[in-house]
Amino acid sequence: MKAVLAAAFAAFTLSACQTIETWPADEELATFGSNGSAIVIMDSVDNFGCGRIDLGFRDARTKAQFNRNLVTGEPRAIIAQPGVYRL
Amino acid sequence: MGNLPAVELWFDKVEIKPNEVVYLGTFNLSAITVNAQAGVLQNVFSLGLTALTALTGNYNYYPTYAMVDQSEKVRAQVREKYPQYADRMVTRLPEAILVPEDFAGACRNAYARKPDGSMPTPEEAEAKLDGEMDKAVAASIARYSAAHPEFKKDTAPAPAPKPATPP
């Protein structure tokens, strides 16, 4: 387990600093409402790393998931299916 | 989810409803810092939920998570980008099961002086942290369950955190 955690920290260090995502493109946003889909808005404050956090949610029942790479203080949105999600 | 160690232990589930515009909160990543110089802990404990910009020297960092409500700030930012959705935005934060204070207490106990007054080595402290985190998480879940009878724990016990290196 400790090795897994160490690897997780390493992954955190790398991916949190290398990815930049934007608000949804117009094409993605156009799918809002299809099959009940929702607009989910996420935001973050990073007092620990380089100012970017890869944050995601997963629905334990359907396995649906979504994530965004967040820059401190700059909310981002994503189109997601309704469900009960966990960080 | 994402790449934040053990984050699934910290928060309860949150529902996303059909056709809504929902803000899930502002995720706050901080760290508990432990001063561990020259292989031996000094000054016991420099514990804080602090920004790291002012820290130098040999520290161990244990990430902590919180979800805070900044609805109005976020609504204003959404309005700039997508004005048609700003007024539809509702706020629904996942509730915290484990809070930074619980986490800090586990670290404080693990890094406390030994009965003879000496400091533990980093290895001793990290070994003790396993059990301290188990106790802290169990206490947090018990407290949360008492306040939320519908809560069903469906995650494994907490793995003990390892020190992290800030990017």
Question: What would you say this structure looks like, in words?
Answer:
- The complex is a heterodimer of chains A (87) and B (167).
- By secondary structure, chain A is an alpha+beta fold.
- Chain A has two helices and five strands; from the N terminus they run H-H-E-E-E-E-E.
- In chain A, strand 2 and strand 3 (65-71) form a beta hairpin.
- In chain B, helix 3 (100-110) runs antiparallel to helix 4 (122-147).
- With 167 residues, chain B is an alpha+beta fold.
- Residues 37-56 of chain B have low confidence and may be disordered.
- Chain B starts with 13 loop residues before the first strand and ends in a 20-residue tail after the last helix.
- Chain B is built from four helices and five strands.
- In chain B, strands 2, 3, 4 and 5 form a four-stranded mixed beta sheet that branches.
- Chain B has one domain.
- At the A-B interface, helix 1, strand 1, strand 2, strand 3 and strand 5 of A face strand 1, strand 2, strand 4 and helix 1 of B.
- Strand 5 (83-86) of chain A pairs antiparallel with strand 1 (14-16) of chain B.
Give unreliable regions of chain A as ranges: 1-19
Quote the distance from N terminus to C terminus of chain B.
Answer: 19 Å
Order of helices and strands of chain A: HHEEEEE
- Shape summary of chain A: flat
What is the count of β-strands of chain A? 5
Structure, briefly:
With 87 residues, chain A is α+β, with helices and mostly antiparallel strands.
